[in-house]
Design goal:
transmembrane; 68% helix; transmembrane helix; Potassium channel B446_29190; mainly alpha
């Protein structure tokens, strides 16, 4: 890092700004993946209830995607809290990462509409695997290139790295399960809510 001028770096403020904006939009758009079910025949409490059953899986996918995006957003902010300087490579890792975030509403909708099919679940889980992998790459690059606070505790560095690897491991597991039990493969993400507390 000493070989570079201060002008070769920028702060994380602009990354935080665009990250918050894209996450806010993505987390809002995924609610549109549910849709209001249409009632066939005469409208009654029973027919409305029956129609609501048809959107049970899309609703589960919406909640799951919303929580996962919140977890990724939190993890990214934790990383950027310790990153003191940003170079062009780090910047572009984040831009590509945000591209995968922006795709989540699409992958959530196709996964919810075609829950029993392998291809739709692969799209959703590969989307999340890409997010998790780039989140890890982001932290790996920052620590290797000395972009983080030099006084940062090594235990904290390792903890953030393990959290990123946990995201990668769970999303990779879900991707493999897409080929075996496509309809229920996404339930493995529930493990993140429990396992993250032990990292």
């Amino acid at each position: 890092m000493d070989n570079f001028k201060e002008s070769d770096y920028m702060t994380t403020d602009r990354i935080l700004a665009i990250t918050d904006g894209i996450f806010a939009i993505a987390m809002t758009l995924i609610v549109l993946t549910i849709g209001v079910p249409s009632v066939s025949g005469p409208v009654s409490d029973a027919s409305i209830q029956k129609a609501l059953y048809t959107i049970a899986f899309p609703f589960f996918n919406f909640v799951l995607s919303f929580i996962l995006l919140a977890m990724f957003w939190t993890a990214n902010h934790k990383q950027l809290h310790y990153v003191k300087h940003v170079d062009s490579v780090f910047l572009w890792i984040n831009i590509v990462w945000l591209l995968f975030i922006a795709i989540v509403p699409f992958s959530t909708e196709i996964s919810g509409d075609y829950s029993g099919y392998t291809i739709s679940q692969l799209i959703f889980n590969l989307n999340l695997l890409g997010i998790a992998s780039l989140l890890y790459l982001n932290w790996h690059y920052a620590t290797k290139k000395g972009l983080i606070n030099k006084k940062m505790d090594k235990t904290k560095i390792k903890s953030i790295k393990l959290t990123c690897l946990l995201f990668v491991g769970v999303s990779l597991t879900a991707t493999v399960l897409s080929l075996i039990i496509p309809k229920w493969c996404s339930t493995v993400y529930v493990a993140l809510l429990v396992l993250e507390r032990f990292v």
